[in-house]
Amino acid sequence: MSEVHDIAIIGGGITGASLAYFLQGRRSVVLLEQETALGFHSTGRSAAEFTRRFHSPEVGRLTQASADFMMTPPPGFAEIDLLRPRGNLLIADAEKAGHLRTVYDTERANAPKDTPPVELLNVEQAMEKVPFLDPGWVSVAFYDPDCWDVEVEILLQGYARGAKSQGAAFQQSASVTGAVRENGHWVIETSAGEIRAKTVVNASGGWADPAAGILGAAPLGITPHRRTAISVKVPGHDLTHMPEVNEIDELFYFKPDAGQLMVSPADETPVDPHDAWPEELDVAYAAHYLSECTTLEVTHVAHSWAGLRTFAPDRLPVIGFSGQVEGLFWLAGVGGYGIQTSPAVGQIAAALLCDAPMPDPIAGIDPRLFSPSRLER
User: Fold this and answer.
1) What's domain 4-50+152-221+313-374's superfamily in CATH?
2) Contact between 273 and 210 (Cβ < 8 Å)
3) pLDDT per residue over 252-272, tens digit each?
4) Where are the chain's structural domains?
5) Residue 258: closest CA among 234, 292, 293
6) d(CA 333, CA 209)
7) In angstroms, rounded to a whole number, what is the distance separating the alpha carbons of residues 228 and 286?
8) What is the pLDDT of residue 159?
């Protein structure tokens, strides 16, 4: 009989890779990724930001608990910093000016621990940060200095490299096609051959519910949502130190990306799991929003793409053992915050799988908040 691993992780995105890393060799691990590369879908197509504001209380705690790792990773984890300062400029037109000031007052009064305060700006001050804003559209703004770009590929590869150094095996081009439970472990059929493991971790992102079906579990309503982005050139403007710009209700946002401007209409369209592609209407909306709030004329879209943001019905992650199927552990539904919360999420899952105490800095987070039992029927 082939080797029986302690844990098989289905999914090689940021969540599965972080778990493999934080298991730290305490269990024998094999990670199965259906694509030819890790992070092919959601992870590799993220806007890649780290911010401790504008989250639900639960996601805020996960983000805060991830901050130390993201800002000061362990020695040897990465050759460069995982975070680069970006800042976030929130803008509103005249109709939403009062709403923006309310949000500003709330954020000012409820600043996360160790974060610099937000700053209310008039139009002239906002245009000092983003000179091509249209003063006829922007009525008021505030600036959040606690917003960072994430070096996503460096983070993902750091997790993978660290996990491999502790003995984890990674198999790519390994789609799971079937699974049965026998003699206290799983026999998993994949396109790369048979794998045996005592516990299967369902970290398959947008494919979490279909993967659960293969494993004999009922779906939890975990649904992928398409998000679109375009890239446009901005001749005559140095974008190096420009902040990210968000409409106050996240109707749209844009930020520098590889010398161009990445723009998203912040769409969240429920879809079946697939290799996402942009719809023409969403591309048009992105260009329209940019043209509306700036003096830029968008005559050409250099590139467009789409990714999947996957949510449970209550928009909280699902972390924990199934109450329906023996040997099944859920690790899914991290939505649009999977990258920035991956240190905390990975540590919570690793502690549960190893029946170990929650380590600092996640010791104050109750993992029962994320249990799949809240969604199982």
Assistant:
1) FAD/NAD(P)-binding domain (3.50.50.60)
2) yes
3) 999 999 899 999 999 999 999
4) 4-50+152-221+313-374, 88-145+223-311
5) 234
6) 10
7) 8
8) 97
335 neighbors 272 (Cβ within 8 angstroms): no
Question: pTM for the whole thing?
Answer: 0.95
**What is the longest distance spanned by two Cα atoms in the chain?**
72
Q: Residues with Cβ < 8 Å from 281, sequence gap 6 or more?
A: none
CATH architecture of the domain covering 88-145+223-311: 2-Layer Sandwich (3.30)
Question: What pLDDT shows up at residue 368?
Answer: 96
Looking at residue 321, its pLDDT comes to: 98
What gap in Å lies between CA 34 and CA 288, rounded to an integer?
A: 36
H-only helix segments in 194-334: 208-214, 280-293
For residues 16 and 29, give the distance between their C-alpha atoms in angstroms, rounded to a whole number. Answer: 11
Summarize the confidence of residues 215-221 as an average pLDDT: 97
3-state secondary structure of 265: coil
Q: How many angstroms separate the CA atoms of 226 and 170, rounded?
A: 27
**C-alpha span between 210 and 66 (Å, rounded):** 29
Tokens encoding 218: 């009922």
Residues 282 and 309: beta-carbon distance below 8 Å:
no
**What pLDDT is attached to residue 44?**
52
CATH fold match for the domains 4-50+152-221+313-374 and 88-145+223-311: no
How many percent of the chain have pLDDT more than 70? 98
Comparing 65-69, 113-117, 342-346, which segment has the lowest mean pLDDT? Answer: 113-117
The conformation of residue 243, written as its DSSP 8-state character, comes to: P
